[in-house]
Amino acid sequence: MTAHDLDLSYVQLDLGVRDESEFRLTSVSSTVAVTGPCPRCHGTSTTDFPLGVVGSKGMQWRRDKQLTPATRSAVVADEVLYCECGFGHPELPEGALFVGCGAYWRIKPAPGSGT
Ligand SMILES: [Zn+2]
Ligand SMILES: [Zn+2]
Q1: Which of 13, 77, 82, 86 could connect to 98 by a Cys-Cys bridge, CB 3.0–4.6 Å?
Q2: Does residue 9 contact residue 47 with C-beta atoms inside 8 Å?
Q3: Is the pTM of this model over 0.85?
Q4: CA 9 – ligand 2 centroid, Å
Q5: CA distances from 2 to 11, 40, 41, 66 (A)
Q6: In angstroms, rounded to a whole number, what is the distance separating the alpha carbons of residues 94 and 98?
Q7: Domain residues of the chain, as ranges?
Q8: 70 and 53 in contact (C-beta within 8 Å)?
Q9: Interval between CA 75 and ligand 1 midpoint (Å)
Q10: For residue range 76-92, what is the model confidence (pLDDT) as tens digits?
Q11: Backbone conformation region of residue 97, classed left if phi is above 0, alpha if psi is from -120 to 50, else beta
Q12: 96 within 8 A of 52, measured Cβ to Cβ
């Protein structure tokens, strides 16, 4: 495991698409949480995606039903994850929405898993 690089300055940087297997997808009631190391600073970042927001895209499922891994993947497939390692990297703008190194990325499932 790579150490959290605290010396990195805050830069808004698009890291592109990462493999979903680098992250852990969990769901609690109607929120899917994505946890994993930031690909840039390696700090542990957790991002929550409430299903209510996603529902506006037209995807629907019963809220009282346990989410399947495939559903979790679908929920986060079009979302952008921002580094939320929680560490105030140098040059972090005042009032920044996400406390981290400024990197952002998307995740997609590895080929062959799910749909
Ligand atoms: Zn980061
Ligand atoms: Zn960090």
Answers
A1: 82
A2: no
A3: no
A4: 9
A5: 20, 11, 9, 33
A6: 11
A7: 13-108
A8: no
A9: 22
A10: 988 999 999 999 999 99
A11: alpha
A12: no
